[in-house]
Amino acid sequence: MAHRAQELLDAMRDSLASGGSIETWVAFETAEGGLTLLEDCHDAPESLRWSRGAQRIWRVRRVGNRLIAEGFAGDVCCRLEAPAPRSEVTRLLERAIPYEVRPG
């Protein structure tokens, strides 16, 4: 479960670093073993068990300057954290040349 959480955390970091804007993902494993990824899903993990038949559930989200990945399977859970990539605006501002405007 932690391995999949790390994969999803890495994927979100890469997505955000390349300009992606989705900051919440939920992935779950179905009874048949398939994996479904939902963007901008804020459902509680327990509700996905009942509404979608999810067996194992992972939630990845950006919280401030951190990325958090959580995995849930029955009574077992895991949590991983990593720094979030800087936003495109921050990167652009860092490249800007400072200048001063003086009244003419």
Question: What does this entry look like structurally?
Answer:
This protein has 104 residues and is α+β, with helices and mostly antiparallel strands. The protein has one domain. The chain has three helices and five strands, in the order H-E-E-H-E-E-E-H. A five-stranded antiparallel sheet has the order 2-1-3-4-5, with helices on both faces. The N and C termini lie far apart (64 Å).
Order of helices and strands: HEEHEEEH
Tally the beta strands: 5
Rounded mean pLDDT is: 85
Distance between the termini: 64 Å
Number of domains: 1
Count every helix, treating DSSP H or I runs of 4 or more residues as helices: 3
Helix content: 25-40%
Whole-number radius of gyration?
Answer: 18 Å
Major sheet details: 5 strands, antiparallel
Write down the oligomeric state. single chain
Shape: elongated
In spatial order, strands of the major sheet run 2-1-3-4-5
Poorly predicted regions? none
Structural class: alpha+beta
How much strand?
A: 25-35%
